[in-house]
Amino acid sequence: MTAARRAGWVAMALVSAMVLAACAGDDAEPAAAEDGEVAEAPAAEDPAEDAADEPEGEPIVIGGTLALTGPFAATAQIHEIAAEQYVEMLNENGGLLGRPVEWTVLDDESQADLSASLYERLITQDGVDLVMGPYGTGAITAAMQVAERYGYVFPHHTASLTYAYTYDKHFPTWFVGLNTHHTTPRKVFEAYQTLDDAPQSVTFVTNRFPGTDFLVYGVDQGEGALREGGGALRVAEEMGLEVLEDLSFDLGTTDFSGIAQRVAAVDADLLFVGGLGVDGPNLLAALEQLDYKPRHQFHQWPAPGPMLQVGDLADGATSVTIFEPFEPYLSNPGAQELYQRFTAAAEAAGMSYTAPETQAGASWAAWQVLTAGVEGCQCLDHDEIAAWLLDNTIQTVQGEFNYRADEQNYGDDIQTVKQIQDGNWYVVWPPDHASEGRDMQGAG
Amino acid sequence: MTRRQLFPPRVALGFLAVVAVLLTIPTLQQRVGFPLYNLIFLYLVFFWITQATSWNILSGYSGYFSFGQAAFYGGGMYTTAILGGRHGWELLPTLPVAAVVGGTIAALTGLLVFRLRKLSGEIFALFTLAVALGIGALVNNWGVLDGGRGIPMGRLDYPAWLGDTTQMLYYLGLLLALVAVLVAYVIQHSRFGAGLFAIRDDEKVAEALGVPTFRYKMLVFILSGMLAATSGGLHAMQVGFISPDGAFGLRIPVFVILMSVVGGRRHWFGPLLGAVLIHTVTDRMAGAGYAEANQIVLAAVLIAATLFLRQGISGRLVERPVPPTVTFVVAFLLAFTVGGQTAIGSAAVAIGAALVVLFLPDRWLRSWRRGTDGDGPPAGADDAAGPAGDDEEPELDRAQEAGR
Amino acid sequence: MLILLQTLATGIVLAGLYSLFAIGLSLGWGLLHTINFAHFSFVLLAAYVTYELSTAAGWDPVVTMVVTAPIGALLGLGLQLFVTTFKIDVFGTLIVTFGLFLIFEAAMAMRWTADLLRLPSEINPYFTSAVRIGPIRVSMLLTIATALAVLACVGVWWLLKHTRTGRGIRAFVQEPEMAAAFGVNYPQLSLVIAGIAGATAGLTGTILGMYLSLTPTVVEVWIAVVFAVVLLGGLANPIGVMGAAFVIGMVESFTRQFADPAMARLMALVVLIIVLVFRPEGLFKRLVQEARE
Question: A227, A259, A327, A353: most buried, per Cβ within 10 A?
Answer without folding.
Answer: A259
